[in-house]
């Protein structure tokens, strides 16, 4: 039996333990979004039972982006409360600054789709290098990330987001 994601569906809603990577290069940040949707998120995914957050992030980047990364350091710890497919969701998400280990694995500008052999069964993802200066003009989740990405410090930033 494969090890399951720490994504627990309960009568009251969903609990999610997720990790995400913040990759910044040349004044741009790598974001993902499902094809034909307008909102963006940082690449990553759910941690599996028995997996560390860093192991999960390395695995998720390889599976979804097709890139080998190294987590540089934890920068954000977010408690996120929102509606997901009409369910209440309580999500814990750890965000790491990440470094690309092999610059030939992905385009370093523009938009790209994940290779067919890595394609997810749920939805096709598009990855986009977005200028940091444009984050305020697009829908990025978590919402507060647009403001906080320009002020990443050496301290771990913790915040709680409640969707209205």
What characteristic shape results from the CA principal axes? Answer: globular
> What is the CATH level 1 assignment?
Alpha Beta
Distance between the termini: 38 Å
From the coordinates shown, what is the CATH architecture? Alpha-Beta Complex
CATH topology: Nucleoside Triphosphate Pyrophosphohydrolase
Kindly describe this structure.
The protein has 164 residues and is mainly beta. The protein has one domain: Alpha-Beta Complex (Nucleoside Triphosphate Pyrophosphohydrolase). The protein contains 2 helices and 12 strands. It has helices at 53-65, 145-148; strands at residues 7-10, 13-22, 24-25, 28-34, 40-41, 44-46, 69-84, 87-100, 111-113, 125-131, 140-141, 157-162. Strands 1, 2, 6, 7, 8 and 12 form a 6-stranded mixed beta sheet that branches. A 4-stranded antiparallel beta sheet has the order 3-4-10-9, with no helix packed on it. Strands 5-11 form a two-stranded parallel sheet. Strand 3 and strand 4 form a beta hairpin. It starts with 6 loop residues before the first strand and ends with a strand. The model has no long low-confidence stretch (mean pLDDT 89).
């Amino acid at each position: 039996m494969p090890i399951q994601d720490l994504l627990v569906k309960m009568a009251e809603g969903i609990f999610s333990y997720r990790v995400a990577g913040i990759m910044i290069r040349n004044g741009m940040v790598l974001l993902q979004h499902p094809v034909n949707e307008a909102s963006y998120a940082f690449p990553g995914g759910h941690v599996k039972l028995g997996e560390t957050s860093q192991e999960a992030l390395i695995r998720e980047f390889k599976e979804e982006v097709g890139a080998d990364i190294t987590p540089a350091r934890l920068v954000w710890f977010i408690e996120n409360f929102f509606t997901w497919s009409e369910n209440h969701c309580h999500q814990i998400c750890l965000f790491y600054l990440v470094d690309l280990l092999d610059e030939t694995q992905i385009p370093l500008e523009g938009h790209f789709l994940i290779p067919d052999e890595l394609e997810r069964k749920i939805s096709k993802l598009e990855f986009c290098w977005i200028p940091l200066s444009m984050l305020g003009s697009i829908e990025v989740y978590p919402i507060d990330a647009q403001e906080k990405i320009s002020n990443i410090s050496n301290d771990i930033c913790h915040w709680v987001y409640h969707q209205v």
